[in-house]
Specification:
Distance between the termini: 79 Å
Largest sheet: 4 strands, antiparallel
Low-confidence stretches: none
Shape: elongated
Helix content: 10-25%
Number of strands: 6
Oligomer: single chain
Strand order of the largest sheet: 2-1-5-6
């Protein structure tokens, strides 16, 4: 059986189904338990994972990911934010209207 999570797409701003690597985890009581990074699948200790910004369970809680994948997620998020803030085209500045009553 495949474990399915939701992965946030920063570009289109919606979740997509995502198949988790075997051993991916959200929580472990033993931080020395070996788990898989929810993004790349590398095996690591749960205590060394970072909470994913993109890969979540149905309640929105993030799975554990390795440092490299977490850094990539942060970069993706920042690129999407920068893209959002850039205007599609330059709007001309409105010219002040002349009002003879204020002379």
């Amino acid at each position: 059986m495949q474990n399915i999570a939701k992965k946030w797409d920063w570009e289109i701003k919606e979740y997509k189904d995502y198949i988790l690597p075997k051993g991916a985890s959200i929580f472990e009581e033993d931080t020395d338990k070996e788990v898989s990074c929810a993004s790349c699948g590398i095996r690591m200790l749960f205590g060394g994972t970072y909470t994913s910004n993109s890969i979540h369970d149905e309640t929105g809680f993030g799975y554990g990911v390795c440092r490299e994948c977490h850094s990539e997620e942060v970069e993706e998020r920042e690129k999407a934010r920068e893209k959002k803030q850039k205007p599609l085209f330059d709007m001309p500045k409105p010219k002040p209207e002349y009002n003879p009553d204020y002379e």
